[in-house]
C-alpha cells in the first residue's frame, strides 16, 4: 500500500525485527525485541494462570495468530509453490506444527 499510494517507506531494512524509521524505528525495534524475549522464556502456547477467562482469551489470541500465519503462508505459497515457505521468526518446526505439516 505504501507504493500504491505513493508514500515513502521509512523502513530501509527488510530483516525481521529491524525498524529504521527515523521517528519510530527505535520504538518498534525495542517493542519487537521485548516481545521476542518474553515469548522465549515461556513455553510456546502455554499461559501461566489459573484464571479461566485469561486462559480462554490467550487461547483465542493464539488461534487468531495461527489463522493469520496459515492465511499468510497460503497466499505466499501461491507464488513460491506449496511447501516452500521458510520460517523467518518462528522455528520451521513451529510453523510446520501450526500448518499441520
List keywords for this structure.
single chain; 101 residues; mainly alpha; 3 helices; 51% helix
Please explain how this structure is put together:
The chain is mainly alpha-helical. It is 51% helix and 0% strand. The protein contains three helices and no strands. The longest helix has 29 residues. The radius of gyration is 17 Å and the shape is globular. The two termini are 32 Å apart. The mean pLDDT is 84.
Give a quick rundown of the structure:
The protein has 101 residues and is mostly helical.
Order of helices and strands: HHH
Shape designation: globular
Strand content: under 5%
- Residue share in helices? 40-55%
Mean pLDDT: 84
Which stretches are low in confidence, meaning pLDDT under 50 for 5 or more residues running?
Answer: none
By DSSP (H or I, 4+ residues per run), the number of helices equals 3
Structural class: mainly alpha
Largest sheet: none
Task: Tell me the span between the first and last alpha carbons.
Answer: 32 Å
Number of strands: 0
Radius of gyration: 17 Å
Amino acid at each position: 500500500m505504501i507504493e500504491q499510494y505513493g508514500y515513502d517507506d521509512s523502513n530501509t531494512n527488510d530483516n525481521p525485527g529491524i525498524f529504521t524509521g527515523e521517528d519510530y524505528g527505535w520504538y518498534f525495534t525495542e517493542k519487537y525485541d521485548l516481545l521476542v524475549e518474553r515469548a522465549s522464556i515461556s513455553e510456546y502456547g502455554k499461559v501461566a494462570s489459573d484464571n479461566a477467562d485469561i486462559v480462554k482469551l490467550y487461547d483465542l489470541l493464539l488461534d487468531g495468530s495461527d489463522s493469520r500465519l496459515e492465511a499468510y503462508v497460503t497466499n505466499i505459497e501461491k507464488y513460491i509453490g506449496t511447501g516452500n515457505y521458510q520460517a523467518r521468526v518462528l522455528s520451521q518446526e513451529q510453523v510446520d506444527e501450526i500448518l499441520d505439516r
